[in-house]
Design brief:
Radius of gyration: 17 Å
Distance between the termini: 42 Å
Oligomer: single chain
Strand order of the largest sheet: 4-5-7-6
Strand content: 15-25%
Number of domains: 1
Shape: globular
Largest sheet: 4 strands, mixed
Length: 170
């Protein structure tokens, strides 16, 4: 099986930036170290239903069905801890994790922290706020991130945050 991904500028990848691949290539990144895996990330490992978005041009499916649709597919998910184990990565070597997980943000972070998985940089798009979880749940998650040593270093004012941690999780 050929697992090479063709490099194509497409607004469906890279957060909608049409020059995503061009920027990545020109950055000098070693593209041989970028790997795609056939599983999703969740707070539990196992088969989960992923619901399609209302707009067929969008690519972000959701376990939490935040767009209230009926069409779905089943996919294997792994916890962050299990994905690290599967790839042979030590939790303390995880430098950056970006979560854009359509409503599973708090539950995934809870699972990570309970297993002492604390990347140095954690970027989160809180897409499930007000749909999959409420303000109290979000506040509890933010307090827990602070408790384990994360500092908020970026807030775009639209529920996109970036945290930095200087010390290991306890």
């Amino acid at each position: 099986m050929n697992n090479e991904i063709p490099v194509v500028d497409d607004t469906r990848f890279g957060g909608g930036d049409p020059s995503y691949w061009s920027v990545l290539i020109s950055s000098g990144a070693n593209l041989k170290k970028i790997h795609y895996h056939d599983y999703g990330i969740s707070e539990v490992s196992g088969e989960r239903l992923f619901f399609y978005p209302k707009n067929p041009d969008h690519v972000s499916c959701s376990i939490e069905n935040i767009q209230n649709t009926t069409k779905a597919f089943s996919c294997l998910t792994l916890t962050v801890s299990a994905a690290l184990e599967e790839t042979g990565t030590l939790p303390q070597n995880l430098a950056l994790l970006k979560l854009s997980v359509q409503g599973c943000e708090c539950s995934i972070i809870q699972e990570m922290l309970s297993n002492n998985v604390c990347p140095s940089v954690l970027c989160v798009h809180w897409e499930g706020y007000g749909i999959a979880y409420d303000e109290a749940t979000l506040r509890k998650c933010l307090l827990e991130l602070t408790r384990v040593g994360y500092n908020l270093v970026y807030d775009n004012g639209k529920l996109k945050h970036c945290f930095f941690r200087e010390r290991q999780c306890n």
